[in-house]
Amino acid sequence: MAVAGPVGGLQRRAPLHAAASGGRASLGMENAFGRSRPFSLGVEEEFQLVSAESYELVSRFDELLDAAGEEHGLQAELLQSTVEVATGVTASVPEALEQVRANRRRLRDAAAASGTLIASGGTHPVSRYEHHDVTEQERYTST
Q1: Which domains are assigned to the chain?
Q2: Tens of pLDDT along 87-113?
Q3: Prediction pTM value
Q4: What span, in angstroms and rounded, lies between the C-alpha atoms of 77 and 48?
């Protein structure tokens, strides 16, 4: 740990918990390095469900889910006009990209089957969130 020295320089200082361990520096946490894969990653994406006629957001998650079939990987979000897709835990970027592409194809096909367009963006430019249905899951409806 580095702390400010007397004239603005830095000096090294043992962590506070070193004194409690008899002067030895201790991490103060369990070290689990080497017990699992060294690196892993996953990708989560959220998409807006949009009307093909007006390009307004539409609360059609349930219809999209019906169109997606059994193994879809789609998850509800707070609003029924949003869908989440996520990869599993992957060991490499190429593996994650392969799953992202497969997820996007499934989403594209389910959206087309349900008459819905998909869009990606932080917020919709004209639709107001209070005009859309909230997903009925405890994590979203409990107060």
Answers
A1: 1-31 (no CATH), 44-141 (3.30.70)
A2: 999 999 999 999 999 999 999 999 999
A3: 0.61
A4: 10
